[in-house]
Amino acid sequence: MSDDVPTVGVGLKAPHVSLLKRIDVGLMTGILALVLSFVGIITALATYQLEERTQKALVLPIVDIDLGYLSKIDPATDTTRSYFEVSLNNVGAGLAHIQSVTPRIKGEPATDYEAFDLSIMTGRMRSWATLTDAPATGFVRAGEHVTPLSYRIGGSSGDLQAYLNGQWGTPMEGVDVDVCYCSVFDDCWTVSFLDRKQPKPVRSCGISDQTVDGFQDFIDQRTAARQSSE
After folding, report:
1. More confident of the two residues 78 and 25
2. Residue 103: strand pairing partners
């Protein structure tokens, strides 16, 4: 057999070098286009995520809980008086949907308003105190607050000082308030007064059109008690 017989098969010719070069160039061009497309997708995704985080930061609510005794001006008498208040303050940049508020005593939900009252003051102090209450849940704009519970303390200032000095035990021992709230993007967080930490992200605060409001429960209990005594 002659050495000149083609090795690629009968009737076939080896591909021309220029054809192989064109195939190589086309293949590399296709691969490069694919890589560039992938990089473009990653860049677009990163840009979208950055824009989303920026938008969320611009409307981020931060709920801060104030709980305890303070002195402030009584608008009725224009004099300084002592108060016990629970205040939920939106110190963030966006609207806060406060969806769940649970007052607690020593870690357990406070389900009775009288028990909660006696956890923050003595019975004697309560008999002289004037209550202003309101629902705790709802929408709170940035820079605003809601005060679900406010007691203007009456009687002798010595009673309050003795209470705060621990004459009848540790004042406000174990009294806490838990709050769950969401942003306009439905990102949600929980925060509690005694935890003293940053709000913790959670998946949700429950069904969006349903609320859990322990202070509203107290209002309902007080209303029922007044009606039954009439």
Report:
1. 78
2. 177
